[in-house]
Amino acid sequence: MENKKLTVEEMHRLTVDEFKRAPKQPLVVVLDNVRSLHNVGSVFRTADAFRIEKIVLCGITACPPSAEIHKTALGAEDAVAWEYVSDTLQAVLALKEAGYETLAVEQAENSHKLGEFVFEKGKKYALVLGNEVKGVRQDVVDACDGVIEIPQHGTKHSLNVSVTAGIVMWEATKQMST
């Protein structure tokens, strides 16, 4: 069996305009004070891959246009909708008001293990991811409807925020698409 790599033409990629018009997963990613512009860019690129609705950038999280964000986003920052909200708590409260179930992605008491939590098809979700060192602010965790935790079995009990975003976006879109 031959495994010939696909060309760009064979992948039938959407243009930026087609992406903007295409239906989206009812999923918003909220970045709470993420410091690394490379992490922000990586989240944009993953959000593009899963065709999520929007990214909300909060606090010290950098916004496009930025050469450093573009370095990892590779143009996804032009396709994926985004907005800046200075305070993450206000962003979460606004999303709740708009009908989103808000979920902090954090290690916390009474968290739901990813894989056991059920993302319901047709329901709107907002995933809140935190700062590379401090995680999601406690007042934001408290305001969320729930907490999702990625089970980990190594020595660090810590994943890069962009890796975490990818894992959780994958699981959410997989469940909501079936």
Structure description:
The protein is 38% helix and 20% strand. With 178 residues, the chain is an alpha/beta fold. It has a seven-stranded parallel β-sheet, sandwiched between helices. Strand 1, helix 3 (37-49) and strand 2 (52-58) form a beta-alpha-beta unit.
General shape: globular
In round numbers, the mean pLDDT is: 96
> Which stretches of 5+ consecutive residues score pLDDT under 50?
none
The count of strands amounts to 7
Oligomeric state as shown: single chain
The helix-and-strand class reads alpha/beta
Radius of gyration from CA coordinates: 16 Å
Helical content band: 25-40%
Strands ordered across the widest β-sheet: 3-2-1-6-4-7-5
Number of helices: 8
Tell me the strand percentage band.
Answer: 15-25%
Distance between the termini: 29 Å
Give the topology string: H per helix, E per strand.
HHEHEHHEHEEEHEH
Taking the sheet with the most strands, its summary is: 7 strands, parallel
